[in-house]
Amino acid sequence: MPYPNRRDFLRQAPLFGVAGLAAGCATASNPEPEAVRPVVVSTWQHGQAANAAAWEVLTSGGRALDAAEAGVRVTEADPAVRTVGLGGRPDRDGVVTLDAALMDGSGRCGSVAALEGFVHPISVARRVMEVTPHVMLVGDGARDFALAEGFTPTELLLPETRREYQVWLRDNPGYRPPINVENHDTIGLLTLDRQGGLAAACTTSGAAYKYHGRVGDSPLIGAGLYVDGEVGAATATGWGEAVIRACGSFLVVELMRQGHLPAEACRLAVERVIAKNPDYREIQVGFIALDRYGRSGGYCIQDGFDYAVYSPSQANEMIVPPSKLGQHE
Ligand code: SD4
């Protein structure tokens, strides 16, 4: 379905229902839905452990940004997760390089990319936001900053991941990074606190065996994550290059601003990704979104993506969203 222009959207508005319109513009005859708070939503199975930590912060009265950071730190420190932080797969030169970003509903944000040697890039990103005049630091500069801020350097390449890498190197004499649907699993986590504050955090070791220096969507504000306190929050997972081409998470938030419910906003953003990536059958991209009323949703290209929702009515439930190639073709 093509992206609707304003006239088409208004014509189709009844299809999205009163609640859908209310996301963008509440009126006397179209009142705002009652907000559900707090809520945490995050990508993939490992999102459940991250959600639990974020939920703890939110139910103790903590703020959305603190909860988002606390949540993804759990995944970053888990050596069993091969796509985030400690234990993450290396690039094609055998170096683990990390991308991470966070943002809150007021537009405050911080980011690091191609950072080597720290378990918690998300906390380095937070310091970038808090103590520098910048949004993003990369590579050696990010590393110097992390050291100056007192973060402890750590070897992130674990023996098992090193062995896997050596097998990959042996079996891939062409030395090309793989582009396939299994080559990902970022944690992206969205929070809505009791006070109505929104935040997002996203952290990853990126595409396995990528070129050294490659930066994906995850640390790019607007691509890997985006938050607008008047609307909602979104984050992306999957093949970052495809997400960047569509400025994916910003697009999801803007679609919610126009009145689309989170799931529909994610679906339309996936359609845009597909339109800009002719190889879409070979890749996975998924979005999740949370609006300021606590409603959440997701959509992806391929089956296989799931996400976890923790709210007063959803006890850290895994949700399997619809997908373009699985259920809609
Ligand atoms: C990237 N989007 O670097 C990230 C990878 C990922 O789930 O794991 N997404 O392209």
Mind explaining what this structure looks like?
The chain has one domain (35-319): (Glycosyl)asparaginase (Glutamine Phosphoribosylpyrophosphate, subunit 1, domain 1). 34% of the residues lie in helices and 21% in strands. It has helices at 6-24, 47-59, 64-76, 121-131, 139-148, 159-171, 240-246, 248-257, 262-276; strands spanning 39-43, 98-104, 109-115, 136-138, 187-192, 198-204, 225-228, 232-238, 285-291, 296-300, 307-311, 314-319. Helix 2 (47-59) runs antiparallel to helix 3, helix 7 (240-246) crosses helix 9 and helix 8 (248-257) packs across helix 9 (262-276). The chain contains 9 helices and 12 strands. An 8-stranded mixed sheet has the order 4-3-2-6-5-1-11-12. It has a 4-stranded antiparallel sheet with strand order 7-8-9-10, with helices on one face. The protein is α+β, with helices and mostly antiparallel strands and 329 residues long. It starts with 5 loop residues before the first helix and ends in a 10-residue tail after the last strand. The protein binds N-hydroxy-L-asparagine (SD4). Residues 83, 184-186, 204, 206-207, 216-218, 237-240 line the site of N-hydroxy-L-asparagine.
Write the layout of secondary structure elements.
Layout: H1 6-24, E1 39-43, H2 47-59, H3 64-76, E2 98-104, E3 109-115, H4 121-131, E4 136-138, H5 139-148, H6 159-171, E5 187-192, E6 198-204, E7 225-228, E8 232-238, H7 240-246, H8 248-257, H9 262-276, E9 285-291, E10 296-300, E11 307-311, E12 314-319
Parallel strand pairs: 3-4
Antiparallel strand pairs: 1-5, 1-11, 2-3, 2-6, 5-6, 7-8, 8-9, 9-10, 11-12
Helix pairs in contact: 2-3, 3-4, 7-9, 8-9
N-hydroxy-L-asparagine binds at residues 83, 184-186, 204, 206-207, 216-218, 237-240.
